Amino acid sequence: MLEKWLKRGPGQTVAFIARPDADQLAETMVALANTDGGVILLGVDQHGQIVDYLTDDGAENELIQAMTMCRPPVVTEWEQYQLPTGMVVALKVARSPELHALSDGRVLVRSGALNKPPSGEVIRHLAATKSSGDFEAEPVANTTLVDFDKATLDEYLRLRQERGGRPLKGSLTDHLVEIGAMLEDGTPTVAGMLLFGKHPQSFLPQSGIVFVKFLGKEARGRDGLAGYGRRVEIEGPLARMVERAWNIVAEEMQTEAVVQGLRRKEMPEYPPFAVREALVNAVCHRDYRMSGRRVEIRMYTDRLEVISPGGLPGYITLDNIVDEHFSRNPRLVAGLFQWGYIEELGLGIDRMIEEMLEHGHSAPNFEAKPYAFTVRLHNIRERRPAYQRWPTNMNERQLKAMGYLEQSGRITNSDYRQLCPDVNAETLRLDLSDLVDKGLLLKIGEKRGTYYILK
Question: pTM, whole model, 2 decimals?
Answer without folding.
Answer: 0.62
